[in-house]
Amino acid sequence: MQIYWTKISQIIDETLEVKTYLLDCPADFTWEEGSHTHFALEGFNTGEKPNRGLIRHMSISTLPHENLIGITTRIKEQCSEFKSILRTLQVGDEVAIFKTHSNVPLKREDKNVYLLSSGVGLATFRPLVLEYMKRDDNVGHIHSLNVDSSKDFLFQDVFNTATDNKMTAKFVENRKDYYEEVKQLATDKEGLFYVVGSDEFLMQNIEVLFEQGIKPEQIMLDKHEHKLPEFLTPAMSI
């Protein structure tokens, strides 16, 4: 396993609670849209065993052509040890990244794509939208639906309704309105539905999608393949 130590190049305050850490990109480090990585703080590997309290599984919110690795995360006032330390880091400090992989690349199957997320889950989808804007071959319409009760909606420069109507976006403030919107989107029986959020959020979305007749192969989750049955198999019996 290769561990890349890199420096924080910039810290962006997206909202009161959400920060994006932009990391210098090592020369041989590559990734694709929808990628996640293991993001670790100094000291995580100093003992006989890795200190898992200093490691988090994070989505990369940028694309390689941006020349920086973006990690976007919510840091609440009351938070874990990991995020308490992360909050104190400054430009120039070192962090580590390793085990980078994409479970949710943009599928080019001539179908409409629906991006369903909660809050900072948009960080996973930002690269998919940018990749689509760069090259829309074999992708129909993209629609993003995000629920965030904070009303501080993220990445509104990217998640907006484009003038050519190939990409649309909607933000809602509560779960009730959100799931009504999901039901409407699921009237597209051929669409591809990408879902990102907590495990509870995933299961709730899957239940709604299956109730509307969406098949398991149409649902994309940011989970390793061996984990997918835990989420999709129970829903199949609804």
UniProtKB/TrEMBL annotation:
InterPro entries membership: FNR_nucleotide-bd (IPR039261), Riboflavin_synthase-like_b-brl (IPR017938)
Domain of life: Bacteria
SUPFAM superfamilies, A to Z: Ferredoxin reductase-like, C-terminal NADP-linked domain, Riboflavin synthase domain-like
Name of protein: Dihydropteridine reductase
Organism: Sporosarcina oncorhynchi
